[in-house]
């Protein structure tokens, strides 16, 4: 069947919860994917920061093949070796002490919310339950994670959401201080807001947040589901600031393409969870954690974190050049490492579509931000190829909008 036939079949049987591109992908390798028609694309979406090792990394594929022949699933009533091995890797390479495994970022956030409340109620009193989060934040689509998300447009149609969350502007310490109440138990934020438009936490701000938590006895929760695991040029984005959270959530890149999530916590905080307090049937299953351990080792051993920092700086610099070349179209460039966004003065959808037609996959967030999250294995030559396509697209749009002076080469 061709693309249109597959899409028609999908529309017949699958719920319309995504505004999908007219593309049916069938194969991926490294930074490239191919559609059902055999056309090749350079992938700068990477499963939205999931495929950090690229598509079908040999170490992840081999780990999956090997584990699939041994044990696909066993209940968490029992121990399994890949789960223990991945937990050990995460703890030994972070400032946290214990791990809870689940299946997604939203599940990791739900676990963090429950742990924060349980800990606070036991240590600080029964009236401690409120978590302050940031406007433009994104923490997931389940009801608890959605309630924590500071984007009212995503709340529409789902009221009443679970109570216990207050939203404040990102990078605004005074607003955060004003929002504190006798019920506050934790502050949760993303060091880099990916879905919110690629906004980076300022260093003074994040240091101030950490200081507030220390003085007030609040838990500090970092959501590193999108920005963690090497994406920003450090293993964890919080390392840019020298800050250790009490709780951290991970997912996306953790499984090398396989669905998995994790919530990490300091020992003292983790002790608030006891048998029966929280669970996940498939969380930490042998197949997903075997893939996760292979992906984590590849991330560390193949120098991909330094690569993200170096190539991220190069990509940022080149995007800045485009911003200066097309000031009528581009507001600014933001981000860290290989998590970058270009805010546009126009809706970004036509840019995404035009790039796709030229063989480059990118995506838009917040309606006007072009987000680039290529695999960490991307080469400088592939970055140049992507930039050439983006430049061609902006030149065409600039001419069409009558801004010829900014589109000339």
List keywords for this structure.
Aspartate Aminotransferase, domain 2; alpha/beta; 409 residues; 18% strand; seven-stranded mixed beta sheet; 17 strands; disordered C terminus; 40% helix; globular
Mean pLDDT: 96
Content of β-strand? 15-25%
For the biggest β-sheet, the strand order reads 4-12-11-10-7-5-6
**Main sheet?**
7 strands, mixed
What is the CA-CA span between the terminal residues?
A: 42 Å
Outline type:
globular
- Level-2 CATH architecture of the domain at 59-301: 3-Layer(aba) Sandwich
Radius of gyration: 22 Å
User: How many helices in DSSP terms?
Assistant: 15
- The helix content is 40-55%
CATH homologous superfamily descriptor of the domain at 59-301: Type I PLP-dependent aspartate aminotransferase-like (Major domain)
User: What is the structural class?
Assistant: alpha/beta
Q: Work out the number of β strands.
A: 17
What CATH calls the topology of the domain at 59-301 is Aspartate Aminotransferase, domain 2
Describe this structure in words.
There is one protein chain. With 409 residues, the chain is of the alpha/beta class. The chain has a domain at 59-301: Aspartate Aminotransferase, domain 2, CATH 3.40.640. Helices cover 40% and strands 18% of the residues. It has helices at residues 3-13, 46-49, 58-68, 81-92, 105-123, 143-148, 152-155, 173-179, 203-216, 267-270, 286-301, 304-325, 349-357, 380-400, 404-407; strands at 25-29, 32-35, 40-43, 98-102, 130-134, 165-168, 184-189, 192-193, 199-200, 219-223, 247-250, 261-265, 330-336, 339-344, 360-361, 363-365, 369-372. The strands form four sheets. Strands 4-12-11-10-7-5-6 form a seven-stranded mixed beta sheet, sandwiched between helices. Strands 1-2-3-15 form a four-stranded mixed beta sheet. The protein has a four-stranded antiparallel beta sheet with strand order 13-14-17-16, with helices on one face. Helix 3 packs antiparallel against helix 11 (286-301). The protein starts with a helix and ends with a helix. The relative contact order is 0.16. Residues 403-409 have low confidence and may be disordered.
